[in-house]
């Protein structure tokens, strides 16, 4: 297992439609394990193969308190409802924004052993599934932000928080 480098926007691989995986073999299982390690190392809850420079239809999901897993060649079976939520991405680390996502989804595909898998997701899982499948189609969350007002810089926000913490916790000079 290896931690792979995350491709950052505007890397062209992030805009390509990923290719379907014809056979789940040892190379795909290694990719899955590497993606899981990379996702964990970057504190993500999902990762798509294009984010590590591999234009194949493979995602990994890692919800809090659950064992991470892969979905190969994922497809939506059903989407229900709509909600607006804050979203960010390991491939666009400096931005976050408000996007519309489904309230719940059902996705089918193959697991890392090539066996059929079906996943029902609500809330964070639903969001992660939609976000990662978007990556397989060359779509980034910034494409789904309705207006520039709903996009914000994450780095600046973090720096502001650190500045606020420093200024409030520093003792005054006397």
Automatic annotation (TrEMBL):
- Enzyme Commission designation: 3.5.1.88
Q: Which residues form the active site?
A: 132
Region Disordered, as annotated, extends over: 150-174
**Reaction(s) catalyzed by this protein?**
N-terminal N-formyl-L-methionyl-[peptide] + H2O = N-terminal L-methionyl-[peptide] + formate
Q: Which cofactor does it need?
A: Fe(2+)
Per UniProt, the ranges with Low complexity bias are: 165-174
Q: Name one GO biological process term.
A: translation
- Give the cofactor note: Binds 1 Fe(2+) ion.
What keywords were assigned to this record? Hydrolase, Iron, Metal-binding, Protein biosynthesis
**Which Pfam families does the record associate with it?**
Pep_deformylase
Q: Sorted alphabetically, which InterPro entries does this protein's record hold?
A: Peptide_deformylase, Peptide_deformylase_sf
Q: Which SUPFAM superfamilies match?
A: Peptide deformylase (SSF56420)
Instruction: Return the Gene3D superfamilies for the record.
Output: Peptide deformylase (3.90.45.10)
What family is reported? Belongs to the polypeptide deformylase family.
Query: Its biological function?
Result: Removes the formyl group from the N-terminal Met of newly synthesized proteins. Requires at least a dipeptide for an efficient rate of reaction. N-terminal L-methionine is a prerequisite for activity but the enzyme has broad specificity at other positions.
Q: What is this protein called?
A: Peptide deformylase
Please tell me the species this chain comes from.
Answer: Dehalogenimonas alkenigignens
């Amino acid at each position: 297992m290896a931690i792979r480098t995350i491709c950052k926007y505007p890397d062209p691989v992030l805009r390509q439609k990923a290719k379907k995986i014809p056979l789940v073999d040892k190379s795909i299982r290694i990719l899955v394990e590497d993606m899981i390690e990379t996702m964990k190392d970057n504190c993500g809850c999902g990762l798509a193969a294009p984010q590590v420079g591999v234009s194949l239809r493979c995602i990994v999901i890692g919800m809090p308190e659950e064992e991470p897993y892969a979905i190969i060649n994922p497809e939506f079976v059903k989407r229900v409802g709509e909600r607006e939520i804050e979203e960010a991405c390991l491939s666009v680390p400096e931005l976050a924004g408000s996007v519309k996502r489904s309230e719940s989804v059902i996705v089918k595909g193959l697991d890392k052993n090539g066996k059929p898998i079906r996943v029902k997701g609500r809330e964070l899982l639903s969001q992660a599934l939609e976000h990662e499948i978007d990556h397989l189609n060359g779509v980034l969350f910034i494409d789904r932000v309705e207006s520039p007002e709903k996009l914000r810089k994450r780095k600046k926000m973090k720096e502001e928080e650190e500045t606020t913490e420093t200024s409030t916790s520093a003792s005054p000079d006397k």
